[in-house]
Each structure stands twice: as structure tokens, then as C-alpha cells.
Design goal:
- This is Allantoate amidohydrolase.
- The chain is α/β, with parallel strands linked by helices.
- The protein folds into two domains: 2-200 and 313-391, Aminopeptidase (3-Layer(aba) Sandwich); 203-311, Alpha-Beta Plaits (2-Layer Sandwich), CATH 3.30.70.360.
- Helix content is 34%, strand content 24%.
- The chain is built from twelve helices and 15 strands.
- Strands 1, 2, 3, 4, 5, 6, 13, 14 and 15 form a nine-stranded mixed beta sheet that branches. Strands 9-11-7-12 form a four-stranded antiparallel beta sheet, with helices on one face. A two-stranded antiparallel sheet has the order 8-10.
- Helix 3 packs across helix 12 (373-391) and helix 8 (228-241) packs antiparallel against helix 9.
- The longest helix is centred in the last third of the chain and has 21 residues, at 278-298.
- It is globular and about 75 Å long.
- The structure holds glyoxylic acid and manganese (II) ion (3 copies).
Length: 392
């Protein structure tokens, strides 16, 4: 909790509440510097990889390492725990293992992934996607933030070479097992600590509606081609389509130019859709797309739909879950989650597991996100015991 308190003033968002910390922005860079200093202070060897992620090694870097970590960025107006809890707990777990006199037989590393939330450049898990080749380097580097700065430019300013980015087989080969600790993001966990069993299939789509910009007072309603109307219809269609456990969310609507007395010339509607599997998710998005196209036609507008990112259902490694249970107890609960994580991206490349710390309110991606200090402490103990079991 003292470590989290250390970070409490970094990236506070006074307008939205909570925190806004995004890949390579000032707040995230300050948190990364904090992490590097903390890791070096523990005698860990801090090495950035080619893709903007930070690694801190206990022992000689090499294949078969036991790796833990998470991210330091947030959603816009996010909570204090989503991301930083996993990083801080990893450092505390190292301290606890040392206090126990543990000497790892395998290399152990703590990793911080860049732009996990996609809050700045639009694609979530950008650092782990780059490392695994799930996104091509040129596509990642061309992504822009709200000010038109590209990811490549931001990475370059932070000391990374965009030309060297891309799938990193050496980093992937170094991961013998990956365990990410994270605050649980729903109300599904009744014990202080549990395991993740699976992640819903999910993706992001951008609907760009184009109409005719004009004057709010001088343009008769019957003369308008207002892209905000099909945008609104799309929001409603998303709610209608998300049945049977599927989720569809429009959390971001960007009108251009965005003036109160201006009929927008275009509107970007960002859709986040998730469901048990790929076919069901695609079905939900197809229904929303059909509604968006119909509403655009009715208003004399155009619509272009782009898939911005995608990830299929993740089932975490049964063997590694059994190892974690061997360390923590056979009765350690496991639960599915609707939230995406770097662990979900890595799961296609290495045995991967997640430890969840109970969320008493079920609030996440919002300033009210919370975890009790005792549960966080239980998370550190569970992570330390897991790492000890895996690295012995
Ligand atoms: C990231 O936290 C996500 O699930 O969108
Ligand atoms: Mn998140
Ligand atoms: Mn997270
Ligand atoms: Mn996430």
C-alpha cells in the first residue's frame, strides 16, 4: 500500500477523477522511472525490450524464466489498481522471497507492458501484441492519439527505435511461465485471492459516420444529414444486440468538429464487443453493423466500419493452474473474466496464469475501483508462493 501511495499523485485526472496514465505520456514515463528505480534498488537488472516494455531480472536473463508483471497505464479516468497492483505486488513478492531466503533456480523477471489499455493509441495490449507479433510494427507505429501523435513518434521520444519494433522471439523464448496478478474487475471473487480461468473473446470496432456539417440554427431539420443520428442509433443497437451474456459498449463518441451549435460533419463511434466465443461476438457486431448501416441510410449519411483490434477466447493453461494450486491450495477458486490482459495475449505463446485479488465493489475502469489492503497483502503472499514454487 505504501508503494501504491508513492504513485498516488502521478497522473491524477482532475477533470475526470481517478487517473489518466497512457503509454509514453508524462505520467506513464514517470511511473516507469519509478519502477526502474525500485527494481534497481533491489539489485534487479533493468532492461527495456525493443517494443517499449520494461524487464527487471533477478538472475541472468535467459530461457525458461518465471515472469510476472502487469502494466502502469490506465484507461481515461481509471482507478489506482488496474495495472499498478500487479507491478507493485511483483516487487513486493521479490522482497518477500528474499526475506524467506529463497534463491531461484530459474531466472525470474518482473515485466511492465506499455499501453495495455489502449487509452492513448486505441489498441489494447500494444506492448504484448508487438512482442508476440499479434500486431505488425508498422501498423502499431502508425496508430495515432487524439493529438495526431503516432505511437512510433511517442516511442521514439521515449528512447525506442520504431524500426527495431516487432515480434521478439528472444523475449518470448525467455518466458517459461507468465503469471499476472490483477485486481478482479467484477464481483465474481468471494475469497481474497483466486485464479482466472478464461477471458472472453473481444475486440474494438470504429464506426465513422459522415454527413454534412452545418449551422445548428440556420439549417432546417428536414435539410440535415446529421451523422449524430445514426451514431445514437448505433449506441442503442449495441445494447439491444448484447444478449445472453454478451457485452457491447460504446464508451467513446467523437464528433467532428464537436461544437454545441454545429451539426457534426462526421462522428466516430468506438464499439467494444465481447462474448463467449468468436462466432457469438461476430454475430453481435454484425447485428450492430446492420443497424448502423440502416440508420446511416435513413439520414443520408455514409458509414465506414473498421475493426481496430481483435482477440479470441483465452483459456488459461491447465498445467500452470495446477502448479499454482499446488502452491496455494487445491481449493483456490478460479473464475472467468470479461476483461482483457497482456496475460491473454501471452497465453498463445507460453504457459500463462493470472491471480486475481478480490474487488469488493465490482467497480473497475473508474475512479471508485478498490481493493482492501488485507486482500492486496494476501495477493503478494500468493504471488510470492507461486513464484517460489515455479522457480525452485
Ligand atoms: C482492458 O482492461 C480491457 O479489458 O479492456
Ligand atoms: Mn484495464
Ligand atoms: Mn489491467
Ligand atoms: Mn486490461
Amino acid at each position: 500500500m505504501a508503494d501504491l501511495a508513492d504513485l498516488a499523485d502521478v497522473g491524477r485526472d482532475r477533470r475526470r477523477g481517478g487517473y489518466s496514465r497512457h503509454g509514453f505520456d508524462r505520467a506513464e514515463l514517470e511511473l516507469r522511472a519509478w519502477f526502474a528505480e525500485q527494481a534497481r534498488g533491489r539489485g534487479l537488472d533493468v532492461r527495456p525490450d525493443r517494443n517499449g516494455n520494461l524487464w527487471a531480472w533477478w538472475g541472468e536473463p535467459g530461457p525458461g524464466a518465471v515472469v510476472t508483471g502487469s502494466h502502469l497505464d490506465s484507461v481515461p479516468g481509471g482507478g489506482a489498481f488496474d495495472g499498478p497492483l500487479g507491478v507493485v505486488s511483483a516487487l513486493q513478492a521479490v522482497d518477500l522471497l528474499r526475506a524467506r531466503g529463497f534463491r531461484p533456480a530459474k531466472p525470474l523477471a518482473v515485466v511492465v507492458f506499455v499501453e495495455e489499455e489502449g487509452g492513448r493509441f486505441g489498441v489494447a495490449c500494444l506492448g504484448s501484441r508487438l512482442m508476440t507479433g499479434a500486431i505488425a510494427a508498422d501498423a502499431a507505429c502508425a496508430l495515432t492519439d487524439a493529438d495526431g501523435v503516432t505511437f512510433g513518434e511517442a516511442a521514439h521520444a521515449a528512447g525506442f527505435d520504431p524500426l527495431r519494433m516487432g515480434r521478439d522471439d528472444r523475449a518470448l523464448a525467455s518466458i517459461g511461465a507468465f503469471v499476472e496478478l490483477h485486481v478482479e474487475q467484477g464481483r465474481g471473487l468471494e475469497e481474497p485471492v483466486g485464479l482466472a480461468s478464461s477471458i472472453l473473446a473481444h475486440g474494438r470496432w470504429r464506426f465513422t459516420f459522415t454527413g454534412e456539417g452545418n449551422h445548428a440554427g440556420a439549417t432546417l431539420v428536414e435539410d440535415r444529414r446529421d451523422p449524430m443520428l445514426p451514431a445514437a442509433a448505433t449506441v442503442l443497437a449495441a445494447r439491444r444486440a448484447a444478449t445472453g451474456g454478451a457485452r457491447a459498449t460504446v464508451g467513446r463518441v467523437v464528433p467532428n468538429p464537436g461544437g454545441t451549435n454545429v451539426i457534426a460533419s462526421s462522428v466516430d463511434v468506438w464499439l467494444d464487443a465481447r462474448a463467449d466465443d468468436e462466432p457469438r461476438t461476430r454475430e453481435v457486431v454484425a447485428a450492430i453493423t446492420a443497424a448502423a448501416e440502416g440508420a446511416a441510410r435513413d439520414e443520408g449519411c455514409e458509414v465506414v466500419v473498421r475493426e481496430e483490434s481483435w482477440g479470441g477466447t483465452v483459456t488459461f493453461d491447465a498445467g500452470l493452474m495446477a502448479e499454482v494450486r499446488a502452491a496455494l491450495g487445491a481449493d483456490t477458486p478460479a473464475l472467468p473474466t470479461g476483461a482483457g490482459h497482456d496475460a491473454g495475449i501471452l497465453a498463445a505463446h507460453a504457459p500463462t496464469a493470472m491471480l486475481f485479488v478480490r474487488n469488493p465493489t465490482g467497480v473497475s475502469h473508474a475512479p471508485g475501483e478498490h481493493a482492501e489492503p488485507d486482500d492486496c497483502a494476501a495477493g503478494v503472499v500468493a504471488l510470492a508462493s507461486t513464484l517460489e514454487h515455479l522457480a525452485r
